[in-house]
Amino acid sequence: MEREREHLIKPVLGRHYPAIAYGKGVFLYDDAGKKYLDASSGAVTASIGHGVQEIAEAMQEQAGKVSFVYRSQFTSEPAEQLAKKLSDLTPGGDYWSFFVNSGSEATETAMKIAIQHWQEQGRPSKHRIISRRMSYHGITLGALSMSGHVLRRRRFVPLLEDFPVVAPPYCYRCPLRQTPAACGLACADDLDAAVKRIGAEHIAAFIAEPIIGAAGGAVVPPDGYYEKIKAICERHEILFIADEVMTGIARTGEMFGMQHFGVEPDLIALGKGMSAGYTPMAAAMAKDHVMAPILQGSRSVMSGHTYSANPQSAAVSLAVLAYIDKHGLVQAAQNQGALLLERLRQLADRHVIIGDVRGEGLLTAIEFVADRQSKHPFPPELGVTNKIIDLAFQKGLLVYPAAGGVDGDGDAIIIAPPLTITDEELELLVGLLDETIREVTQELT
Ligand code: PLP
Question: InterPro entries recorded for this chain (predicted)?
Answer without folding.
Answer: Aminotrans_3, Aminotrans_3_PPA_site, PyrdxlP-dep_Trfase, PyrdxlP-dep_Trfase_major, PyrdxlP-dep_Trfase_small
